[in-house]
Amino acid sequence: MKTIVYTLFTLLTISLISCKKQTKGLALNNTPHKIKHWSYQGETAPKHWAEIEANTECDGLHQSPINIIHTHTDSVKNRSDLKIHYSPSTYIEKVNNNGHSIQFDFEIGDSIFYKNDIYYLKQIHFHEPSEHKINGIIYPIEIHLVHINKHGEISVLGILGEEGNESQLFEFLESFLPLKNGDTKYIHKKIDLSSLFQHSKDYYTYNGSLTTPPCTENVNWILFKKPIILSVEEILKLKNNMPVNNYRNEQALNDRTIRYHY
Ligand SMILES: [Zn+2]
Fold it and tell me: Which residue is catalytic, options 62, 100, 127, 144?
């Protein structure tokens, strides 16, 4: 069982860093053509991703992020679909500046039980400002906690952050910064992420995609309604280690339903 899970985690890691591999491949081929690689600005900004990144679903009809209009959601007075099993003895394996975000990778430990399946926490990363909006409101920061099950399916917990008092959790995470583009630090330290969920129980769910190429669809999105609080300095420290405005623009909802679980 553990071997299968490790294999799946490895596969996910490969897919998440595939863009990086393509860049390396180009350098090795010594091609005279400068092939464009996705970014958040200029000719390779999100609106061009579908053209410049081959074999993506970035022009699909079930994409993320979206603007959640609360009055347009289906309310469900039931939160039993989601159970969070986060443990204080989970280890952060490493932190990496992948040129798009700051990403912390985890050893097997934290998991969620969602729609009758177990999804293991693989990595967390950040967007500044937020990608999802609630009632049109953009938040200063959004955290994505990426989980994968044994079939390779993905569930992402999205947590919005707004400015206020300092967060001890962010003090700890940011103690490994600064980190230059492409750099990795190995950490192997215990972390308790459960404080992220202490004040926010109600959540929205919908069927969406990864918000970066390959924009893979059929991702279960679970976005908590109430933002967490962190300080302006903590937000700025993350911001200074990531590309400017590393968010994808709002995508059309199309035929999808958003549920509000309370
Ligand atoms: Zn993300």
Answer: 100
